[in-house]
Design brief:
This protein is of the alpha/beta class and 170 residues long. The chain has one domain. The protein is 41% helix and 18% strand. It contains six helices and seven strands, in the order βαβββααβααββα. A five-stranded mixed sheet has the order 4-3-2-1-5. The two termini are 26 Å apart. The mean pLDDT is 90.
Length: 170
């Protein structure tokens, strides 16, 4: 599993940046991008994981990438089960060796920045981070609109992408 983290996240986690500029072009297993997101609460940040092809957003309430990776795997499995796409777990190659590189896709980072603004808004409006429902916030992003290169369908949601894959599997 390839995780492409921002320089800021790598610095916070004490991981030396490694460049690997060959992006995966296939939908599976794809690359996961990771970045820090402010919460509006002093000393608290979260890590956003974002799949470059499926547009899945997973939020881990920690600032350490090493801790977040452990949370991420469980949170992703719960997300896929919650939305009835658990058949994707094997395709995403979650049990493979984790390789961490620097980010390389400006368009993916642009998508993540839009989602980050939404996360920041929701978290800053929360009275406290204790018992915050991150699953609900992840579910909100399932219906988030993303632009496409398709001339007939200019926008799609994560749910549209996942349903399309599920229909092609049947």
């Amino acid at each position: 599993m390839i995780i492409r983290a921002t320089s800021k996240l790598l610095n916070i986690s004490g991981i030396k940046p490694v460049k690997f500029s060959v992006p995966t072009t296939e939908v599976f297993p794809g690359d996961w991008y990771a970045k820090t997101v402010k919460t509006g609460h002093l000393g608290k940040i979260v890590i956003l994981f974002f799949h470059n092809n499926l547009k899945i957003s997973i939020i881990c309430p920690t600032k350490s990438l090493n801790i977040a990776i452990k949370q991420f795997l469980n949170r992703l499995k719960n997300y896929l089960i919650r939305h009835d796409f658990e058949f994707l777990m094997d395709k995403l190659d979650l049990n493979s060796e984790i390789q961490i590189y620097t980010t390389d896709s400006k368009s993916t980072l642009a998508h993540m920045n839009q989602i980050s603004f939404n996360i920041e808004w929701h978290l800053s409006n929360a009275v406290t981070m204790d018992n915050f429902n991150f699953e609900k916030l992840e579910d909100i992003h399932t219906d988030f609109l993303f632009s496409t290169n398709n001339k007939t369908k200019k926008y799609e949601t994560t749910l549209d992408i996942l349903k399309g894959i599920k229909e092609s599997e049947i």
